[in-house]
Amino acid sequence: MEEKKERAYPAQEVEPENFITNEEVHELLCKKDEYKFTQEDYYKLYSCIHCRECGTSDERILLKQKFLKDGNKIEGLKKTKKIFEEYGSPYKDAKSRIKFPKALPKKSDTLLYFGCFVSVKTPQYGAHIANYLFKKGIRFTTLEKEICCAYPILVTGDISTYDKLVARNKKIFMEKGFKKIITVCPSCYMVFEKHYNNLGIEIEYYTKYLTPLLNKKSGKVSIQHACPLIYDCMPEIKTEIEHLLNDSGYEIMDIPLFCCGGGVGHQLRKDVAEKIAKLRVEDYKGDYVTYYCPDCYWFIKVFGKRARIKPQLKDLVELLTE
Asked: What would the pLDDT profile of 204-253 be if each residue is shown by its tens digit?
């Protein structure tokens, strides 16, 4: 029987000629004062989609920062920077499209923070979570207008814009008196947990409040795990999600851990992100494919449809609703 080949890191798998190894990353950082990046280095430095599997995502951001400091350009970054500074979001029209529960409190010391991608691109995902939590008796409020957590601009290497957005968010959170923030986006959770931890605000991911079904259901489920969580700040979530589904009657399909291609990668090397997505959707099998990340939803929906995959796409809350 032929032995199954282990996959490389996502970007390395689809574009090995441009992948910088961890050893090379550390060497480049150690010798950063001895060389200058050129514009041709863009394809190597920005092939990273920051799934964080390699463990050197933060170091790769530092290399991107040097790339910009060395006088190199990213097409469209100047315009993106201006939009972020003016609108606090990567979208000019950042008005939320999420339908909230009617009895949602206007004031609470708990904030349900959706993130710009959820508010604009995947509002149904956000609405499912908001309604689920509300029905569970979790009381929270929302912001009429959110400021982006700033991770999408951080991974370009533009640290100055990132710092400005972080400062704006911190000011809002402190003025509102929030004691707890529940996020529905893995990147938002990761950024708040790491870079907002001096505020004394408890940061939680919404999956903490999910419970197994009382009336068991059935079906075979492929899980697309959230990369920033399983590889970085919440590795235990993988087992927790699997137990939740098992305890609810579902059978977990055996598929490899691999990035969906989504997240921040799509805003830079779109070609790399889409190569990964096309590869990933072929792994899904069973009756359902589920996720607990808005970027996963968008990517699986788009590229799963193109590949005509058989499993139905359902978010975790849908599978765990009585």
From this structure: 999 999 999 999 999 999 999 999 999 999 999 999 999 999 999 999 99
For the domain made up of 77-209, give the CATH fold.
Rossmann fold (3.40.50)
| CA distances for 286 relative to 6, 219, 243, 290, 310, angstroms | 22, 8, 18, 11, 8
Closest CA to 157 of 37, 309, 318: 37
- For residues 273 and 265, give the distance between their C-alpha atoms in angstroms, rounded to a whole number: 6
Please spell the DSSP secondary structure of 233-290, one letter per residue: I-TTHHHHHHHHHHHTTPEEP-------S-GGGGGT-HHHHHHHHHHHGGG--SSEEE
Q: Could you tell me the residue ranges of all domains in the chain? A: 10-69, 77-209, 220-319
